[in-house]
Amino acid sequence: MKTTELKKGFQDGKYEELLRDIYIDESVLDYQKERYIKAIESFEELFGEKEVEIYSAPGRSEIGGNHTDHQLGRVLAASINLDAIAIVAKKENGVVLKSEGYPMINVSLADLLPKKEEEGTSEGLIRGVAAKLKEEGYEIGGFEAYVTSDVLNGAGMSSSAAFEVLTGNILSGLYNEGKVSPVLIAQAGQYAENVFFGKPCGLMDQMASSVGNLIFIDFADVKNPVIKKVNVNFEDFDHSLCIIDTKGSHADLTDEYAAIPEEMKKVAAYFGKEVLHQIDKNEFYIHIPEIRKVAGDRAVLRAMHWFEETDRVIDQVNALEKEDFEGFKSLIKASGDSSFKYLQNVYSVKNLSRQEMAVGLAFSDVILKGRGVSRVHGGGFAGTIQAFVPNDIVDIYKKNMEDIFGQDACHVLKIRKYGGMKVL
Predict the structure, then answer these.
(1) What span is annotated as the signal peptide, if there is one (predicted)?
(2) Which of 22, 121, 167, 217 is in the most buried spot, having the most CB atoms within 10 Å?
C-alpha cells in the first residue's frame, strides 16, 4: 500500500480497531495513531512516497525464571503493549535503516560474516539475523525502513530482542511469504546477539517477543523448546503489571551479566557437564562442599537459585491456572528474594553506593504493605523492577515511585496477544 494511502487510513480512523486489537489499552489509541502517522511521514521524508508494509515487534516482561534460560531451564514470560514498529519498502541491494534518534545505517548483505567493528551495533544485529535465516535455507534481501520504538532502551523490556524480532519478521514477510516460524526468528535473534553483537544471552527475550502472549517455555531441548500459552489475564484478579525504571546505568555491566552463566557453568563442569539442566538437583546439593572449593561460594549460591527458580516456574503456572493469584504472588516474592540473596543481581559490586533497584524494591514493600509484590526484572544489576499492584492503589503506587525515580518511571502495562507481526 502507498504511504499516502496508509497515512490517510490512520487519519480517518480506518485502523482504529486494528490498533485496539494490538495495544489493548483504550487510553493509548490516540497516541498510537499519531505515532504511526509520524512514522509514515518520517519514512516519506527519507525515502519518498512508496509501496510499504508495516511490521511490529513487542518488548517483553519476564514473569518467572530469572536467569534460567541460558542453563536450559524454564521461564514464564509475556509480550507487552510497548513495541518497535517499522515502515518498510523492498530494496534490491542491502539494508538502509533509520531508527528514530539514531544515525542512518547501511548494511550490505553480500557479506554475512561477523565483523569486530559491528559488535554492540544495530548493523551487527541485522547482519546476524540475516545470516541465520539464510543458513536455515530462507531467502534474504534488501529493504529500506524507518523504525521507531517505545520499548525502553536498557530498561529490562529487551529493546534489542524487539529489534531482532522486527528484523526477522521483515525478512520473513518481504522474502518468505511470512513463513519463517516465530521460534526460528527468536533463535536467529539470539544467534545475532551472541555471535554478531557480542553479548551472551539466553533465548527468553527473543522468544517472548517473537511468540507473544503469556507463555511458559521449557528450554530443555533448546532447538525445539516446549511452548505453552497460559490463558490468564492479570486484570481478572484486579491487579496490574507495573514495570519501574529505576534509572540505573547499564554501562560497564557486561562482565557482571556474563559472570552469571559462567559461574553456573563452573558448577556444571564439576559434574563434567555444560549447563545446570544436565545436573541432578539432589546430586548438586550432596556435592556442595566439594563444589565450593572448585567453583566458589557465589557460583554455588547462583546454582541454588537456578535449581529452585526453574522449578518455581512450574508452580507459578499451576497457581495461575488454578486461579490462585495469592499463591502466585507469594511465588513472585520468593523469586525476587532468591534473585536478591542467591543470584545476587540487584546491584553491582562495582559501585555499592548506587543501589537504585534495591531502593525501588524496599520502597515497594513500604507502599504495597503485603497487598502486592515486587521483584527484580530482567538481567538485573541496574534498570527495572516488576510489581503486581492491586488496581485500587495503582495510581498511588505509580505516583510514589515516580516521586523517587522521576516522571514516567512507572509503566502500567498490558499483556499483548501478538508477538512479532506484519501489521499492514
Answers:
(1) none
(2) 167
